Amino acid sequence: MLKSIYSLSFLLVIISTLTSQSSSYASEGMQCDHLVIAGAQSWFPYSYVQEGNKYYQGLLINSLKDAIEDKSISLSHWSDLPWKRAELQLNKGKVDIILGAFHTPQRAKTWYFSKPLANSELVLFSLNDILDVTRIEELYNKEVSYPFGMATGKKFAAIKSHIKTEHIVHHEQIYGMILKQHTDFGLLPRTAVETYLSQHKLKDKFKIHPLKLNSEAIYLVTSMNNPCLTKIKFIFANLKRVSQ
């Protein structure tokens, strides 16, 4: 009789555990049907937010939408987050996917990267009257501005201790700082610079220097601690490489 009671109790514990796990998985599945995205706001043509709009546009969001088509997944655009805050919210689990990031060893410790979706060349730019910079050493003791948290590539990272760094929140701030001579140079992806100068008719005031910096692969990323990691990995596997 005692054996029967123990056996029944053991069976009830197993059933309760399985039921609890099943309920947890179901809850996670429902939660993962809605993902929050953030990312670059001025990185033409890959990821950007038009003035007066709240939604991401560009090649990266298009690739993501294609990957989740017919999968009953909805996206919330947290488009007013500056880059560094987007990184922090990703690590906290409040952002599920960041649109557009470079790979670094530090990020790889906590982030899961998609396959490379494109490549982006980093460039140095300034006012037209600045002498051409052709060697990285020519930047020693100069002021260089770029977004807080942006990965700068190995060549530039190697001289950071020799330059004066000005971190900004939004790409647009760099152009104003250069025009007011509050900084010497800006550092951004080439396509972002070329598009901004063209759209704002500033090509006659700025130039891109011939200095060769790194060309970096562009990824979508999520946190390795994200509760929806399994589903996001599946989405990432279905992403298609983009082209301009």
UniProtKB/TrEMBL annotation:
<comment type="similarity">
    <text>Belongs to the bacterial solute-binding protein 3 family.</text>
</comment>
<keyword id="KW-0732">Signal</keyword>
<dbReference type="Pfam" id="PF00497">
    <property type="entry name" value="SBP_bac_3"/>
</dbReference>
<feature type="signal peptide">
    <location>
        <begin position="1"/>
        <end position="26"/>
    </location>
</feature>
<dbReference type="InterPro" id="IPR001638">
    <property type="entry name" value="Solute-binding_3/MltF_N"/>
</dbReference>
<feature type="domain" description="Solute-binding protein family 3/N-terminal">
    <location>
        <begin position="35"/>
        <end position="129"/>
    </location>
</feature>
<protein>
    <submittedName>
        <fullName>ABC-type amino acid transport substrate-binding protein</fullName>
    </submittedName>
</protein>
